[in-house]
Amino acid sequence: MVVDQVIRGGTVVTEAGLLSADVAIEDGRIQAVGRELPGGHQELDARGLTIFPGLIDVHVHFNEPGRTEWEGAATGSRGLAAGGGTVFFDMPLNSTPCTVNAKEFDHKRDALAKASITDFGLWGGLIPGNVGEMEELAGRGVVGFKAFLCDSGLPEFPRADDLTLYLGLCEARRLGLTVAVHAESQEITQGLSRLVATEGDRSVQGFLRSRPILAEVEAIHRACLLAREANARVHIVHISSGSGVVAALEARARGTEVTIETCAHYLYFMAEDMERLGAIAKCAPPLRDADELWRMSGALDIVASDHSPAPPEMKTGDFSKAWGGIAGVQSTLAVLLDQGFHKRAIPLERIASLTAGEPARRFRLAGKGATIPGNDADLTLVDLSASQELKRDDLYQRHGLSPYIGRTFRGTVRRTIRSGETIYENGKITAQTNGKLIRPAKI
Description:
The chain is an alpha/beta fold. The chain has two domains: about 5-50 and about 375-385 and about 400-430, Urease, subunit C, domain 1 (Roll), CATH 2.30.40.10; about 50-360, Alpha-Beta Barrel (TIM Barrel). About 30% of the residues lie in helices and about 25% in strands. It is built from twelve helices and 17 strands. The strands form two sheets. Strands 1, 2, 3, 4, 5, 14, 15, 16 and 17 form a nine-stranded mixed sheet that branches. It has an eight-stranded parallel sheet with strand order 6-7-8-9-10-11-12-13. The radius of gyration is 21 Å and the shape is globular. The two termini are about 35 Å apart. The mean pLDDT is about 95.
């Protein structure tokens, strides 16, 4: 039988280990994985390349619709594809209006379907007053619900007080979905920010003082306690510290079903990098200690980008007033390969689990996350031996701002394939079709 295409001679990263094999693709799905498979109408030579399942970035802010001058799905999804990604989950903010009801879900879904070259899922928002909207959002296909325990930075997306979070967790449990939590204490961060401002401290060190690790740890404990009482699943986004990971693990040991996510920038940069880079490296929680987080990396479930871009004028000037978000959608896999595989001998199977396998399992993405027969042919072909310096002109995102510019990474994405279609190849976007909405499988 002649199939649509066969990828020949690559090293396939599977959960069981590395396999020297061909991959046959038919109708956008993986038909077979094995040695010396029959021919295809198209044959790709992957000798010397490593084949990963396409990266699933569960945490991005593409700001579509409403703030596309910050990013947009057209540019954001191209950046994701260039970094080896085939699926993203867009957060309910910073788009305007935010995705807190079915009407705005429909609005965002339609906008993304017209613009994105990768597949996508949508988070719904959990804010005071919208718990009653969660059922309809679940019916539309949200992957879960996002809540902030501190000020989000946007008045249209207020933080969830404890009662809102508890009621939202109870409703999410009934609906079979997860609540994602930005875990920083409002009382601690707000109070310390006022104190720092009163002192006139607008420096990087002042920002770090205003958002201590304690604020993260306290909020993780509180969110996990409420989740355990609600018998609900909670996903702690962008954990920035080893202490935060320990807090989540302690909650898990007590019976909370909690997922631990960190981001590539927390695994790459140190707090002192903010002094050198300035506001381009400002995010919340702040950068801490990458080495400490790597020592805890065996406990991580997912690594995402938390790509949160802004126009250049919002990332300059007074550090205390600059937008807090890092643009890094194109660099997640690069960081994990360079700092994880090459520097720390993290197995490739583990990297594939953090970026594809666990995201697919945790969010019930049928047909995603693994290179096995029957799954979508979402693949990333990487030259592990090649090094590449990231230059501004290499970025596909809307604005050429990234703390990774000028960094050299070992491990280069050569080709990204979404449902059998090559959407990125050797520095060029090649997509001819758009991606589609991904919904969690029914329980």
